[in-house]
Amino acid sequence: MEYFSISSINIPISWIAFFAAILSLEWISRKLGDSCKKSLDTIFWLYIAVWKGSYVLLFWDSFIQAPMSLLYFDGGIKGHLIAVLVLCMYIWKKRQSLSISTMWQLWLRFLAIYQVVFTLFTQQWLLAVLWIALLIAAMWNNYQFIWLLHALLLMWQYTWNDGLLVTFILFFLLKITMVNQAQRKQLFALGLIAGLTGVLLGDVEFNRKTEATERTEISLETKTGEVYNLKEKRNKITIVNFFATWCPPCKAEMPHLQSFAERLPEQVELIGVNLTARDDGEAALSRFIKKYHVTYPILLDEKDQVGINFDILSIPTTVILNENGQELERIVGPVSEAVLFKLLEIYLEKNTVQ
After folding, report:
1. Does 201 share its domain with 292?
2. 333 pLDDT more than 80
3. Is the whole-model pTM more than 0.90?
4. What is the pLDDT of residue 329?
5. What would the pLDDT profile of 243-252 be if each residue is shown by its tens digit?
6. Would residue 264 be called left, alpha or beta, if left means φ above 0 and alpha means ψ between -120 and 50 degrees?
7. Domain around 91
8. Rounded Cα gap, residues 212 and 78, in angstroms
9. How far is CA 49 from CA 53, 62, 83, 87, 162, in A?
10. Domain end residue (candidates: 181, 209, 237)
11. Is the pLDDT of residue 173 over 70?
12. Are 243 and 275 contacting, i.e. CB atoms less than 8 angstroms apart?
């Protein structure tokens, strides 16, 4: 997850984009009747509540170990599907008082605004321009096929198991049921073209993002008194998590990291670097490791040399390195095991690491 950092506070960019889209949608939907607007507000917040709350159901063990993890994580793709199911039940119950066509238009406007804000914050300038153009065109023209461009752009940005894309597809299928046979054929044809184009663009985007960055060697003493030298390990991929025991997001992600460590594929290793010079001492670290049952190597950065060399300003920060110690990816803020496995799949299958 991308984060916007203010001093030592990390704010998820997705949260900023979501609330910006909600506020904008309030302005866009001001001409709707009170009853319709109230129903749409209920739909949005019901979806978010179920999606976020599904984390408790799907990741019960992690939630019990770190209840505050609910603030940082969600149910992922399964959570989206649960939320869509609940939403479909609600819509079916309220079908007499809801306008499916109005919902479709407003939801897609919400999605476009969300993506404009998100891509601007993450400095994806080309995508931001495309989303802005799409949003402007949509505000002036309600022609329904223009919204198929959403599919193309979403497939460019995300893989098929992303929640936004899955939700779009489900809403798209719902829209198809409302049109005649001729329009349905056109929708399917345009959807197929958008999908294939999006997959090709996704390959281009991946190649652009995977340039390695040179980093200094990691050689530190571990919590058990041994010396860990990354150069000697020669793992195909090493994941380095920088943390401190007083940091709430660090506590939230620990159950996920431990679960990830227990399921690591061959030639992949997870290590934790305790920023000891910025932390509360050895006793606090021992309690931390015991509480979260950490079994992967914990390195002690007592002089803050590695933290400074890796430009660690906000914690937690997780860095993915190749076998030469070069940085491939950086995640600022708490990371889930699902995200880590997704990144592993990308870097291992695409052969970006030799």
Report:
1. no
2. yes
3. no
4. 85
5. 999 998 899 9
6. beta
7. 3-209
8. 32
9. 6, 19, 8, 11, 18
10. 209
11. no
12. yes
